[in-house]
Specification:
single chain, about 280 residues, UDP-N-acetylmuramoyl-L-alanine:D-glutamate ligase, nine-stranded mixed sheet, two-stranded antiparallel sheet, 11 strands, about 40% helix, binds 3-hydroxy-5-(hydroxymethyl)-2-methylisonicotinaldehyde
């Protein structure tokens, strides 16, 4: 069985970061080791959330793992609370990088043209620097614009997406994948670039008109899980894009749906079916 280390916060209530990554990647048949960067009462879209920073635990925990000879087939980082923690990830990558494991970075910090609470320009620059260390990065358009100092647009064409992919590639990651890319009316999806071969890949599915917190974390978790189960990055991103769209649709049908996250628990069986078929297509 493959083993992934995922490093992100625990938002106790909110269905995002580790409370999505741990169940989803585990259910996909991949051992999931967690390193919590902070414990929050809720994610940061709730008012008055509590925040306990765990930066001082990262060094001792990783040192202990190193002493135990632990190794990981992938290291997946998501929401990190501070520039200090981004710097700590550079050390963590040095410790656990191997010639053939996967460093997967989701530079979680913004959406819909806006930074999340408590982040600033220094945080954006630090995240852009961290992306240089990755095998694959999966920013949304807002995060990509911030890291590449590109104007954020809600209306754009394929040339704009190409420019963003090119500018992201200059950050230094091997593969760059942009999420939330809509290339025609009623469609949305992802666009990626393998910086070594120049190969581009675009995947579009039907847009669901709703935006939910934690869907980026669901996308990344499914991508990581699928790549660990042998999918190429192109097939993994297609599976993840379909799965997120399907999960949003199912959530919208739930009369008791929470406003703060999607019902990924409900769609886990469909994900496992799609994974088993290896098609990436969900009804
Ligand atoms: O889903 C991304 C995310 C993760 N963790 C925390 C967040 C957010 C988005 O706002 O606040 C704490």
């Amino acid at each position: 069985m493959k083993r992934v280390l995922t490093v992100q916060d625990i938002s106790c209530l909110g269905k995002c970061s580790l409370t999505v990554a741990l169940p989803v990647i585990s259910a996909m048949g991949v051992e999931t080791v967690i390193l919590p960067t902070a414990v929050l009462s809720t994610h940061t879209m709730f008012p008055d959330f509590t925040y306990k920073d765990l930066s001082d635990q990262i060094g001792p925990i990783t040192a202990h793992w190193k002493a135990q000879g632990a190794s990981f087939d992938a290291v997946y980082t998501g929401y990190l609370g501070s520039v200090t923690q981004i710097e700590q990830m550079k050390e963590l990558f040095e410790t656990f990088r191997t010639p053939d494991n996967l460093i997967f970075i989701d530079p979680v910090m913004a959406d819909n043209g806006k930074l999340y609470a408590n982040f600033d320009d220094a945080y954006v620059r630090a995240n852009a620097g961290l992306c240089a260390q990755a095998d694959i990065i999966v920013p949304n358009i807002t995060e990509a614009c911030l890291m590449t100092e590109t104007e954020y647009r809600t209306e754009y064409d394929a040339a704009y997406i190409d420019t963003l992919l090119h500018r992201l590639s200059l950050l230094g990651a091997k593969t760059v994948v942009l999420t939330g890319v809509s290339l025609s009316e009623g469609k949305t999806g992802v666009a990626g670039l393998d910086t070594a071969t120049g190969e581009r890949s675009v995947y579009q599915n039907d847009r669901v008109d709703a935006s939910y917190h934690g869907t980026g974390d669901l996308f990344s978790s499914v991508c990581v899980g699928a790549m660990m189960r042998g999918y190429s990055w192109q097939k993994a991103m297609a599976l993840a894009a379909d799965h997120v769209a399907h999960t949003i649709r199912v959530t919208l049908e739930d009369p008791k749906k929470p406003w703060y996250g999607v019902d990924f628990e409900e769609t886990m069986p469909a994900l496992l079916d799609a994974l088993a078929q290896g098609t990436g297509a969900e009804a």
